[in-house]
TrEMBL record:
Coiled-coil boundaries: none
Matches recorded under Pfam families: HTH_PafC, WCX, WYL
Name of the protein described by the UniProt record: WYL domain-containing protein
Species this protein is from: Cryobacterium glaciale
Record-annotated WYL domain positions: 161-225
Domain WCX, residue spans: 250-323
PafC HTH domain span: 17-139
Domain of life: Bacteria
InterPro entries in alphabetical order: CBASS_pafABC_assoc_protein, PafC-like, PafC_HTH, WCX_dom, WYL_dom
Amino acid sequence: MLAATGRPAAQPRVAGDQLTLLLSLVPYLIDQGRVTVSEVAEHFGLTPERVRGLVSLIALSGIPGETHQYLHGDLFDILWDEFENNDRIVLTHQVAIDDSPRFSAREAAALIAGLQYLSALPHNTDTDAIASLMAKLTRGASAPPTQVAVAQRDAGTTRDIVQTSLSTGMQVEFDYLNARGGQEHRLVDPLRIESVDSDWYLRGWCHLREAVRTFRLDRMSSPRVTAAPRSTHPADLLLPDTLFQASAEDIDVRLELATAALPLLADYHPERSEPIGSGARTRTTLRVAHAHALKRLVTGLAGIVTVLEPAESRAVVADWAAAGLAQYSGNESTSEEG
């Protein structure tokens, strides 16, 4: 009968909730240093009475010492006068927390760099959570992390204009530098803005091509939101899951790379992939709009991919790499020989 009422079954859930709260509360108190009961209650969405009960429970928690008994130094402790007289929580002794693994300075710096990139995404610019997490990583690392700054390739103006056109439902127009180096004026019904690595793209209906096209924001110039609303398109107009789509004018390029790196080419729709020898390396075919488009691909996967054919594509990539190498002083002879 008791089982039918659900009361005994509820106890593990309550105990689990209590443990979860304690595991969240202790790091919070350590991070804050000195905090009032009301501030803790507001942060965790609890009543002040519940907070006081949890704090009292913390003082009874710890790890038994060598005697396998809970002595004074084996338990958490607080400033009881502050707690009882001023309703303020100050931890004075903590157990086992200092022994937990911490991020190294290098690991913390890498995570902070990633968070800086996330903070630049449109949906994250109005939140304080990322900044708070970066501050915690800085304080909690085993040593002060190296100061890093993630450079944004797009200053934000073009992205802001495109984002405005999306939110207002208006057309956007701009001059666009295509893969062949030609400049064209485009009028686009924006459908989506997204990023791949550090590059931002607009996907929309291009009135010049009368089809869905993908545009890199850093190739746009003089963008502006027009006064014309976005056109109405058929209900069956769907954006493909992948960012890049093939066209009849594309050329086939044969590449070789490590098999483990093959997923890096997923957005390019690799075809006719064939393992070589033991399978550690793979040869595959990509369709690209122009041989010059390989420059960006090779830059992003430097040392990973090798262009096999056609010969024109190999020559374009080789000439581009040699020109880049020649920019470094003392390497002119190397570039001529290679």
